[in-house]
Amino acid sequence: MAGEQHRVASLCQAQPAELHLDGVWHPAAVLGWRHDGAGRCRVRVRVDVAGAPRVVWAPVELLRLPLPGVAPVHRSAAPVPRPRPGVDAGRWSPGRDAAPGRRPETWREDHPHDALLDPSEYELQALRLQVELLKLQRWAGATGQRVAVVLEGHEAAGTDGLVRVVAEHLDPRRTRVVAPGDASAPVRLSLAALPAAGELVLFDRSWYGRPAVETGTVGDLRAVAAAERLLVAGGLRLVKVWLSVTRGEQRTRLALRRDGYRLTAADLAVLDRWDAHTAAGETVLAATPTPPWTAVRANDEPRARLEAVRHVLSVLPYDGRRDDVVGTPDPLLVRPAPVAVPA
Predict the structure, then answer these.
(1) How many CB atoms within 10 Å of residue 36?
(2) Which of 70, 91, 110 is the last residue of a domain?
(3) Exposed, middle or buried: residue 39 (CB in 10 Å: 0-12, 13-18, 19+)?
(4) Residue 153, beta-bridge partner list
(5) What's the rounded Cα separation, in Å, for the pair 295 and 335?
(6) Where would you tag: which of 84, 97, 115, 138 has the fewest CB atoms within 10 A of its CB?
(7) Is residue 61 domain-shared with residue 129, that is, in the same domain?
(8) Is residue 12 over pLDDT 80?
(9) Which residue range forms the structural domain that includes residue 31?
(10) 304: number of Cβ within 10 Å
(11) What is the Cα–Cα distance from 279 to 273, expressed in whole angstroms?
């Protein structure tokens, strides 16, 4: 019954707690809770956000109550997901490999570097490369170039973050992002979304449609490959990047998503089809080699973003490029495709 599913209980006296928002634990006060049905509960919490008090309904997983007689410790830390009895049994959970408040180091799998990229170094390099992206956009506008950047890869490989870095400071009137549409749509090239003269279009896992990279439909991919060759011959600047993560790192990223900090049914379906999706990806890389794909190891996501941007800048002949800034993509992370995608 609907009434049963939304019963609200209020506490006579607010109880101290901590609420996890935007990667940080904030002091909070629990005011009550409500039952949403199917064994799920939300808590009514008062918390200061940006200096202003707010009352929000938060999932229980984002709440931390102090132990009796122990003052709460406010620090930046992500809550560790807990496996659901009968649902996640036998499946991976970050809590098995990580101490409380620590992310499991699955990024080390098949990764050539010993340490993650320092955040301050990432910010500096990203800003310098974004200046080069502005030069690229100005060149495309002045010369009427049509530039399309195709981003594909594993689920949770980091294409969204890469798109944000590329488009952050570009003129939105001459930059478009084409995101995935209907996942059940037939495999076909997104011809309607092609860039106009002087425009840069980022295809975020949307160039072929999801069925192509999840099933490796060879017949449709042959037609797409022929269309790509014609488009390039007609003057389209087409750059194709494949971001790959290892199986363990994908599991970590899916488990740490904000929707409850646990694996959802959709996430579990992705994990269960890892081998099939990887094989389909290899088929895509092999079936559409012109123009060539470039594969980027993306277990260290910030480093992979920089190297992917570096690759895009290095293959487009825009005016005013500073080779000391763009440099050469890291050969340990960036390599030509078709290749076997790391599993």
Answers:
(1) 14
(2) 70
(3) exposed
(4) 243
(5) 5
(6) 115
(7) no
(8) no
(9) 1-70
(10) 26
(11) 10
